[in-house]
């Protein structure tokens, strides 16, 4: 039924101004403002994601956006230099940078998680 229908995803934040600064300035994504205080994140491949304000926002407890990169250490270092703090999860065998080295262990991609100002979980990953 929907195989030829365009679709998009979205998620909520509690501060649209902080989200615009984080996604636009910190992450370097092209962000535009839409009607009703909604932001559009323009991702590679002509994929847009909507970010909308929600007064009673509760951060997602799962990864809402994954950024596939060719050199995870380069991106983790650059994000850290921009003030991004990486999450450390028990049992994930992460290094000091917060990278779970799955490729070396034959267990999937190398991945590091961080949050946006609203507490939503994002990741950078290599080898997906």
Automatic annotation (TrEMBL):
Domain VOC: 5-127
Pfam family, one: Glyoxalase
Superkingdom as given in the UniProt entry: Bacteria
PROSITE patterns: VOC
Protein name as annotated: VOC family protein
């Amino acid at each position: 039924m929907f195989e030829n229908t365009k679709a998009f995803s979205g998620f909520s934040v509690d501060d649209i101004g902080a989200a615009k600064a984080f996604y636009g300035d910190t992450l370097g994504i092209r962000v535009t403002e839409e009607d009703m205080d909604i932001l559009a994140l323009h991702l590679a491949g002509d994929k847009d994601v909507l970010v909308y304000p929600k007064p009673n926002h509760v951060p997602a407890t799962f990864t809402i956006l994954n950024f596939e990169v060719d050199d995870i250490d380069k991106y983790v270092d650059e994000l850290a230099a921009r003030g991004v703090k990486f999450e450390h999860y028990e049992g994930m065998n992460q290094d000091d940078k917060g990278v779970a080295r799955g490729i070396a262990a034959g267990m999937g991609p190398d991945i590091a998680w961080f949050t946006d100002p609203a507490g939503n979980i994002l990741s950078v990953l290599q080898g997906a």
